[in-house]
From TrEMBL:
Residues 70-184 form the Rieske domain. This is Rieske domain-containing protein. PANTHER family: FERREDOXIN-RELATED, RIESKE DOMAIN-CONTAINING PROTEIN. GO terms for molecular function: 2 iron, 2 sulfur cluster binding; metal ion binding. Keywords: 2Fe-2S, Acetylation, Iron, Iron-sulfur, Metal-binding, Phosphoprotein, Repeat. Its cofactor is [2Fe-2S] cluster. The gene is RFESD.
């Protein structure tokens, strides 16, 4: 069995040395059969650089630093008919879903590439209801905002794909019902979600009525 390692000619600086750039990497495994007895594997490491100036200001990315009041976004009867609605809550665009008797609210833009989640379909994966982004089919759990994906062990040809979680990627917001009205309270969780990047005015999808 032969292994080939392909590395970049110039390795990126260490994390402590990076001031103007941030980076991530992708490891790709290629497998090809060179003969009946041998398999050839090659590993490629790719480093992606992006300007740190693209990051949002901390005050914009951290909803927890503000105290948000609940905002009425519509009537319970209306969302039960349409099963979803969009709203702007304290200048943040959200989508509210009504699915199997439960309400769920999250950032309207997909964490991956800003796809419009209010246009996606709800499907069950691994027993968990998810909204599927219409752009790239990313699957996000309605209850927790986790990104789900299927993985398989390449060393075990008989292995079946298993559902795994990437962790919380989409910011989830609180929905309450009072006297037939639907209220949304923005999340105050003290961590940053990938969807925070698209929750700004530059990526608005709800058209103003004015």
């Amino acid at each position: 069995m032969f292994y080939f390692i392909e590395l970049p000619k110039k390795m990126p600086p260490s994390v402590s040395e990076i001031s103007d750039f941030s980076y991530d990497y992708l490891c790709e495994l290629r497998c090809s059969q060179t003969s009946e007895e041998h398999l050839q594997f090659s590993f490629s490491f790719f480093f992606f650089f992006g300007s740190a100036s693209m990051d949002l200001d901390d005050s914009e990315q951290d909803p927890e630093i503000k105290e948000y009041s609940s905002v009425c976004v519509g009537r319970e009867d209306d969302i039960k008919k349409s099963e979803r609605m969009t709203a702007v809550v304290h200048d943040r665009e959200v989508v509210i879903f009504y699915h199997k008797g439960e309400y769920h609210a999250m950032d309207i833009r997909c964490y991956h590439s800003g796809g419009p989640l209010h246009l996606g379909e709800i499907e069950d994966f691994d027993g968990r209801p998810c909204i599927v982004c219409p752009w790239h089919k990313y699957k996000i759990t309605l209850a927790t905002g986790e990104g789900l994906y299927q993985s398989i062990n390449p060393k075990d040809p008989s292995a079946k794909p298993e559902w795994c979680s990437k962790g919380i990627k989409q910011r989830i917001h609180k929905v309450t019902v009072d006297n037939g009205n639907i209220y949304v309270t923005l999340s105050k969780e003290p961590f940053k979600c990938d969807s925070d990047f698209y929750a700004t005015g530059d990526f608005k999808v709800i058209k103003s009525s004015s």
